[in-house]
From TrEMBL:
Residues 200-441 form the Glutamate/phenylalanine/leucine/valine/L-tryptophan dehydrogenase C-terminal domain. Keywords: Oxidoreductase. The gene is gdhA. InterPro entries: Aminoacid_DH-like_N_sf (IPR046346), Glu/Leu/Phe/Val/Trp_DH (IPR006095), Glu/Leu/Phe/Val/Trp_DH_C (IPR006096), Glu/Leu/Phe/Val/Trp_DH_dimer (IPR006097), Glu_DH (IPR014362), Glu_Leu_Phe_Val_DH (IPR050724), NAD(P)-bd_dom_sf (IPR036291). The lineage of its organism: Bacteria, Bacillati, Actinomycetota, Actinomycetes, Kitasatosporales. Pfam families: ELFV_dehydrog, ELFV_dehydrog_N. This is Glutamate dehydrogenase. Gene3D superfamilies: Glutamate Dehydrogenase, chain A, domain 3, Leucine Dehydrogenase, chain A, domain 1, NAD(P)-binding Rossmann-like Domain. The keyword Oxidoreductase applies. Belongs to the Glu/Leu/Phe/Val dehydrogenases family. One of its GO terms (molecular function) is glutamate dehydrogenase (NADP+) activity. Homohexamer. It comes from Streptomyces bohaiensis.
Length: 443
């Protein structure tokens, strides 16, 4: 039956490879559930689970600083609201298309369920590239994007946040335009806001910090600890930098990171203040980090962090960035843990190679859920018109990540797959969403 459902997904969504990959990965975890809980696996429920509730595609015209008009495409996929309002980020990157947004929204549905918080799954974005654009151009784009998106969102309906290419600057412009059009200060409509106007402390840090908490829990389950280990992260954006920061604070040495141009290797440990300056403030290339670090760091044009020997590898850049060859190189160099900060960065072949070598592997839908969990904490603060301290917010984040680890670990054991966090995350997420869908009838 699962094969039939997958074949139907292929027919209905032709050419959408990433979406197919994400669906297949979840369905492959379900045969054991099918045996034990047949009531959850009836065809209608699985068919509905693989079909978004709503998909919106729209035109986004905007004018650049030279007065030229550009036309981009905007997307919002509202995948599943059985557990709460749709929740998931917006991505601005030239590679964004319906396939990418749909796979991200599907993943988000299970991830959000795992947090234990009342949020459904959605995702959105545009093929707009903010790189090299002035602040004024980014603002005009965001205003045009929100002029259409505002029809579809709301604090009880759909609550977007940031993702690749959408940080504090973009959320600010998007929120401003929403407020202007609706004439409402509806703080809970977007998360990732600035702390002075409805944002939460620790939201920028949350995905990366949460990833490291999850990684430390996996190690602890095997009587190991992060302290003293060598870590590599791919990417050098929001998730990667905060993962590196938390890993360093936990006693690890983070020896390499990358961007779309290449990687830096810094054997003494990355200088995180410099990295933040170069990548988050100056929005410059990673090569500038190596130049400013003097002789301490080596820049490898086109290089991959997977070639650098490490105990822990944290892919934090983009989907399908860690392939089978990279996985085999990591295994050959003695890696013990691979935990996904990005969404679906590891190809299915790479996951198989890592698992065959008994490397601990954490899927993004569990390991990077700290970002959306803290977004849900931001919604809680907005609803009660309060602002928690950084410490209180981080403590809640830590508790939630430990809870997610516990859920995945125990579910995998309960279904006879000890140590298989992919199965644990998929099954636990599926049970939570599936039970709610079933209770709410055929809709
Ligand atoms: P950012 O835009 O802040 O950073 C992305 C980083 O990845 C940049 O360093 C970018 O390099 C690099 N990168 C992008 N594409 C490639 C590529 N093809 N090859 C090598 N490097 C690449 O995004 P985020 O850190 O927010 O997001 C990263 C990942 O984490 C995404 O998969 C996202 O969906 C996921 N995620 C993000 C969450 C969040 O809270 N932000 C929450 C959960 C998951 P360059 O600077 O050259 O562009």
């Amino acid at each position: 039956m699962l094969e039939e459902i997958y074949a139907h997904v292929l027919r209905r969504n032709p050419g959408e490879r990433e979406f197919h990959q994400a669906v297949r990965e979840v369905l492959e975890s379900l045969p054991v559930v099918l045996e034990r809980r047949p009531e959850l696996c009836d065809g209608s429920l699985l068919d509905r689970l693989c079909e978004p509730e709503r998909q919106v595609i729209f035109r986004v015209p905007w004018t650049d600083d030279a007065g030229r008009v550009h036309v981009n495409r905007g997307f919002r996929v509202e995948f599943n609201s059985a557990l709460g309002p749709y929740k998931g980020g917006l991505r601005f990157h030239p590679t964004v298309n319906l396939d990418i947004v749909k796979f991200l929204a599907f993943e988000q549905t299970f991830k959000n369920a795992l947090t234990g918080m009342p949020i459904g799954g959605g995702k959105g974005g545009s093929d707009f590239d903010p790189k090299g654009r002035s602040d004024a151009e980014v603002m005009r784009f965001c205003q045009s994007f929100m002029t259409e998106l505002q029809r579809h969102i709301g604090e009880h309906t759909d609550v977007p946040a940031g993702d690749t290419g959408v940080g504090a600057r973009e959320i600010g412009y998007l929120f401003g335009q929403y407020r202007r059009i609706t004439n409402r200060f509806e703080a809970g409509v977007l998360t990732g806001k600035g702390v002075g106007w409805g944002g939460s402390h620790a939201r920028p840090e949350a995905t990366g910090y949460g990833l490291v908490v999850f990684t430390a829990e996996m190690l602890r389950a095997r009587d190991l600890e992060l302290d003293g280990m060598r870590v590599v992260v791919s990417g050098s954006g929001n998730v990667a930098i905060h993962a590196a920061e938390k890993a360093a604070a936990s006693g690890a040495t983070v020896v390499a990171c990358s961007d779309s141009g290449g990687c830096v290797v810094d054997e003494d440990g990355l200088d995180l203040d410099l990295l933040k300056q170069v990548k988050l403030k100056d929005r410059a290339r990673l090569s500038a980090y190596a130049e400013q670090r003097g002789g301490a760091a080596e820049y490898r044009e086109g290089g991959r962090v997977w070639d650098v020997a490490c105990d822990v590898a944290l892919p934090c850049a983009t989907q399908n960035e860690l392939d089978e060859d990279a996985a085999k190189t990591l295994v050959g160099n003695g890696v013990r843990v691979v935990a996904e900060g990005a969404n679906m960065p590891t190809t299915p072949d790479a996951v198989r190679a890592l698992r065959a070598a008994d490397v601990l592997f954490a899927p993004g839908k569990a390991a990077n859920a700290g970002g959306v969990a803290t977004s849900a904490l931001e919604m809680q603060q907005n609803a009660s018109r309060t602002l928690w301290t950084f410490e209180k917010t981080e403590d809640r984040l830590t508790e939630i990540m430990k809870h997610i680890h516990h859920t995945c670990h125990d579910t995998a054991e309960r279904y006879g797959r000890p140590g298989d966090y992919v199965a644990g995350a998929n099954i636990a997420g599926f049970e939570l969403v599936g039970e709610s869908m079933q209770a709410q009838g055929v809709i």
